[in-house]
Amino acid sequence: MWTATEDVLPYIAIGAGILGTGGGGNPYVGQLRAREAIRKWGPVNVLSPDELPEDARVICVGGIGAPTVGVEKVRDLQSYHALRAIEDFVGEPATVLISNEIGGSNSVEPLIAAAKAGLPVVDADGMGRAFPEFQMKTFFVYGVPCCPMAVADEKGNSIIVRDTISPVWAERLARAATIQMGCVACYAVAPMTPEQVKRTAVPNTLSLARDLGLAVQTARDSGGDPLQAILETCPGRILFTGKVVDVDRRTTSGFARGSLTIDGIDSWQDSAMTIDFQNENLVARVDGEIVCTVPDLICAVTTDTGEPVTTELMRYGLRVAILGFPAPALWSTPEGLDVAGPRGFGYDTEYIPLEV
Q1: What is the DSSP string of 180-203?
Q2: CB within 8 A of 312, min separation 6: which ones?
Q3: pLDDT tens digits, one per residue of 243-259
Q4: Residue 334, class by beta-carbon neighbours within 10 Å (0-12 exposed, 13-18 middle, 19+ buried)?
Q5: Considering the entire predicted model, what is its pTM?
């Protein structure tokens, strides 16, 4: 067990921004919200999956919506209200919370609700990165029910999706509600058992985000190389470095969709990379050839500071390094690839695991 205090939030924000592959919500905004919650209600204990009591009731909470809207329409305590709504519906209080994804502000969403509710959180999540759609969680891929779920907005509205025929339909219904709620909302899902968490969650991701952020900040403070610090903490490789020369971004159907183009520098001089994104970076190509696809992680950071750049903040002129990291093992199975592989996003290409 460790404790998420105000002091570690900046590290989590950096690390979750990197692991978020461009999405998950703005990590700085999430950091500010979590800081205020911890200042008001106190720090949050973080348990490893192995430390969960046998009778634990673990509720997953997270944000849903378009990141481009989330930087202007900042969430408040929607995750807490969604938590209370699902507790009231199922008739059981949560004893522990868990993140839906370790990307961006969603990494700290359970910390905000947990601080208010006086609960611990699990050092794990349902993605090991960020994905744009609700059904894209290892929990649901490996048999954990996706319903009932609650969706809440900042106005005081909440709805319950009692049951659906598939996790995809849960996404469709929750997304439709989110659009009516202004493209920014939070949700909570019915309790999981400790066995389900240990079997289906990606473990130790909150501590990985913390360690990544600490490594980056230490490199900055000592005059070291933040990119090298990232790769030493989380094995991966540099896919490309260059200057952003074009960003085509639009908010549609509750997502931030588009593509960006980067002109190469250094070893990639005279080459260009394009990246398609749907909240998160999905497919990266160099001179038209695919070099990395989901579910592997495609992460953009500034070349000089290692600061993560999310899709809603990507802009012309930024000098960025594009890093690639292998997907968690739970995504590289046939079941995982059916949900979050390239074909799951409509790309007519096979998944080729990233070599490190």
Answers
A1: HTTSEEEEEEPPBPHHHHHHHSEE
A2: 26, 67, 68, 70, 71, 249, 256
A3: 999 999 887 776 778 99
A4: exposed
A5: 0.94
